[in-house]
Amino acid sequence: MDAADLLAAMPFAVATGVELDSAAPGEVVGRLPWAPHRCTAGGVLHGGALMTLADSVGAVCAFLNLPPGASTATLASATSLLRAVRGGTAHATARPLHVGGTTVVVLTEVTDDDGRAVASITQTQAVLGARPAG
Length: 134
What we know:
The chain has helices at about 5-10, 10-15, 45-65, and strands spanning about 20-25, 25-35, 70-80, 90-100, 105-110, 115-130. By secondary structure, it is of the alpha+beta class. The model has no long low-confidence stretch (mean pLDDT about 95). Keywords: Hydrolase. One of its GO terms (cellular component) is cytosol.
């Protein structure tokens, strides 16, 4: 599955403007351009928008690390917001920290156009077995 197909499988991410640049089990890269309708007071990109970017990119990373026939669901997500984004684009890079039989833990780092840290998000995803037919 390529990045466009993975993104298309997440309608909320598409509706909110998340874009995927590349997707492989070891690293998923995406972005969210600044836009006035994604902001809070003062033209600052809303923290929820940054979290949506990170959750979407992190979920793709977890999905790409699942065993055949398995699915995933978020168990926990911890976010540290570090810097405001007032223009340009927020860039997210997700990498697996742990790939196990019951959980996948993903670290997503969000930066601004200058490469400065904007947010750090750690997600724990459950590995859910394939459902039997019938």
